[in-house]
Amino acid sequence: MMKSKSIVIALIAVVAVAVFGYFMMKPRLAQKSFNQGLTLLDSLKYKEAYDKFDKAVRLNPSIADYYYHRAMALAGLDKNSEAVEDFSKAIAIDSSRFDFYLYRGVASRKTNQPDLALADLNKAIDLNDSSSKAYYERGLLNAAMMNFDQSIKDYNRSIELDGTNLEAFYSRGQSLANLSDFKGAIADYDKMIEGSNATADAYKKRGIFKLKIQDYDGAVKDLLVATEKDQTDKEVLYNLGDAYSNLKDYSNAVKYIDKALAIDPKFDIAYGIKGGALLRKGDFKAAIQSFDKAISLKPDYLKAIYGRGICKAFLKDYKGSIVDFTKVIALDKNYTQAYYNRAVSKAILQNHKDALPDYDVAINADPKNSEAYYNRAISRINVQDTKGGCEDFRKALELGYKPAEQMINIYCPKTNN
User: Fold this and answer.
1) What are the distances in angstroms from CA 191 to CA 146, 157, 159, 240, 356?
2) Cβ neighbours of residue 294 under 8 Å, at least 6 residues apart?
3) Torsion of CA 171, 172, 174, 176, to 10 degrees
């Protein structure tokens, strides 16, 4: 009996030693698993890294870095909601680490929690105001919140701290473009493109910005590079067509727009741009076909409706042009060019009385439009308002429209001044 009791005591002692040894080993086992996770994380093997960090957390749940790195692995797996939870656990253990707040802010931005993200990024900057990454991420957040002025300030600070961060130039360029500062945007894209093996998207955007400032040659060069890098981007192709159209190279304009339409046969804006190119070329019937297609896909496509009205006027379908210009005005009462061209079509149809209010709108919107004064003068003369007509002819001449001089000699004798 004594012998059996001794064996039991010995077994208990062995188990106790083993258990004690295990608990003593847990921190070392946790650290070993954590170190393995770091290697995997550096290799972008996020799932395997997560498993190692998860094991480390289970072995030793009191270490903030274990939660932080498990969160980083989750973020790499695009599991940002879960990552936020782990970042929060890390912060609960150690609230002094700026990077914990920084990356929780990034994960919160990606889960559409802008207020929480902003609070975290502000805290990260408070803890470390020399972090280029923190300012860059806050810039991204402000841009997503449409606070472009503030985003630019953040990108500026990020670049001051780290001028090698080409993504900051790229993102600042985007914000500048959103504020219509296309020259500033181009300058930033210049730096990014010169400093890296730039993507098709970078050349695409710089090309579009150049198109906005009417640097059509520069736009063509950039957009051609973009097409070489990616031949499947319909936006590159139609913008390239638009640039060629503005250079009056209508063959290439139609060629590249047709390539865009081959990729997406329902690309309404491409039909509109193609119609514009054909209008400039003088192929009005073909232009109307393109505008018709654009409008069938997007019934409120103002530029297409307006362009079709212009084509109809050139083809002497003045009634049809008036219908289109009226549709434009119904959709946008501030589209003053439609008033002017509707007035011209009405006047050609001898409907001078109805043309006058349209000329009034056009002139009020652009008081230096010499042709509008000239044409209103003709309509005024035709409704027996000779005095008003002569005033308009003189104004047109004052603004430099020379044909008005002959009309003054005919209709406005000096005795009637």
Assistant:
1) 24, 16, 12, 23, 53
2) 268, 269, 271, 272, 275, 301, 304
3) 170
Residue 95 DSSP code: T
Phi and psi at residue 340, in whole multiples of 5°?
Answer: -60, -50
Best CA proximity match to 75, nearest among 110, 48, 43, 42: 110
CA distances from 113 to 103, 105, 119, 256 (A): 13, 9, 10, 41
Structure tokens given for 163: 């001028």
In whole angstroms, give the CA distance from residue 289 to residue 284: 9
**Contact in structure between 375 and 359 (CB atoms under 8 Å):** yes
pLDDT single digits (tens) 114-144: 999 999 999 999 999 999 999 999 999 999 9
CB neighbours of residue 120 within 10 Å: 30
Hey, what are 39's tokens?
């290697």
pTM, whole model, 2 decimals? 0.79
| Residue among 54, 58, 102 at smallest CA distance from 82 | 54
Contact criterion met (CB below 8 Å) for 67 and 99? no
Residues 6+ apart with CB under 8 A from 64: 89, 90, 91, 93, 94, 97, 100
Are the C-beta atoms of residues 138 and 157 closer than 8 Å to each other? Answer: no
- Three-state SS string across 384-401, please? CCHHHHHHHHHHHHHCCC
Secondary structure of the chain: what % helix, strand, coil (to 5)?
80, 0, 20
What is the rounded CA–CA span in Å between residue 52 and residue 43?
14
Please state, in angstroms and rounded to a whole number, the distance separating the CA atoms of residues 112 and 174. Answer: 20
Do residues 82 and 104 touch, judged by C-beta distance below 8 A? no
Is residue 26 within 8 Å of residue 59, measured between CB atoms?
yes
Q: What pLDDT digit, counting tens, does each position of 140-197 carry? A: 999 999 999 999 999 999 999 999 999 999 999 999 999 999 999 999 999 989 877 7
C-alpha to C-alpha distance for 339 and 330, rounded to whole angstroms: 11
Say how many C-beta atoms besides its own lie within 10 A of residue 46's C-beta. 18
**Rounded Cα distance, 322 and 338, in Å:** 9
Report d(CA 368, CA 115) in Å as an integer: 49
